[in-house]
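thread: overnight batch results

M.L. [08:02]
morning all. the overnight job finished for the chain we discussed friday. pasting input first so we're all looking at the same thing
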Amino acid sequence: MNTSPQLKQSLGLSMVIVIVIANVIGSGVYKKVAPMAAELHSPGWVLIAWVLGGIISLFGALCNAEVAGLLASTGGEYSYYKKIYTKPIAYIFGWSMFAAIQTAAISSLAYIFSQSINSIEALPPVLESWKDINLFGVFYPFKDFNVKLLAIISILILTWINSKGLKGGARLSTFLLILVIMGILLIIIFGLSSPHSDLSGAFSTKSTTGRPVTFSAIFVSMLAAFWAYQGWAAIGFIGGEVKNAKKNIPLGLAAGLFIIIGIYLLVNMTYLSLLSIPELESIYKGQNSIAAVEAVKVFWGDSGSYFIAALIAVTTLGCNHATIYSSCRTFYAMAKEGLFFKKAATLNKASVPGGSMWIQGIWASILVLSGTFDQLTDMVIFSIFIFYGLTTIGVFILRKKMPDAPRPYKVWGYPVVPIIVILFCATLFINTIIERPREAGIGMALMLTGVPFYFWFARKNFKVKS
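M.L. [08:03]
and the structure it wrote out:
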């Protein structure tokens, strides 16, 4: 009789919706309106870009939901790709999650959390005399080490909390998410009711430059929006722990994305009603402020900066918490098949992949020391849309390979919706290579580091079996 710990199906539909929202709402809801305004020069078009970004994300989620409804399992796309494509392609996905996509997101969120705490109460300097130590003149691991140290501590504490059990971690996510939504609602209510608010101006599609808004500008601005929408697919990573996963994951994805689109539209309407396009452009160019902070100052004065700094800290903490407990399940699934570090294949007494979680936490902490956060987030978007495209192509492949298989959910608008997603992903891939060759190159290089590791793990696994 097998008495080893097993993953428990403990999450219902309501928790699936919470996890989807908690994985998505992070720093982007406060910061991305400024670069979008600088690109589009029109408040109305900024709102349109947010809606379009939400629609594309929703279309992607609906396509993902059909695949998840058919193949739901722990590991998300890693498990799906083994059945749709081949094990090596599935492995490259999993390795990309570890090398750059999810761990970079964890380190970036932790750093923003730490910066927010530092803005409320200045952290004491740590190892100031080491700040000029560098690697190749590029990486300065001890620069702003007080902020980085708190970021690392937050990652390790959240990792420890999540190692104590999924249900307890999910409850913490719910609590933090309630605080975040309450905070955002306060911004919306007080902002829109402020005498300084010009709601009609927020819908103006007139450009401050006097020139028409171009398709290229809309596309580039949507890239900023996508960082704010990034994270919804993480629910697939814990598919093996969701009750009635083939029904609840598709429903939770759709419901969660609709709620997020609504929140983003309302809060960005608030920012744009309080701040002019020139003010937002100045915020973006200065790189020393956050749009949400300046918007709150309009109706609450300087004291409002403490509120928004605390809200950003809670938001990024909650998003990071959700990212940490969902992401490590992919590495656990890989390790169970001998394609990742052996320690990651173990479940602890709480039936949680603690080994995988701690390996993830250590690598994310190392990425904090690298300090290349903006570059990492650019790579995340480039890399993840490759896999969004592959998952959507999988809808067509599975319809052909498994035409009679029961599908709890079929993507709305088939085949038009999947085709739109695929074309968009292809356009983003090509556009990023042209417009952001450095980020695209580094992202591809990190993904391809998985190739030698695949052969190393596969050879070790072969030796063990033989």
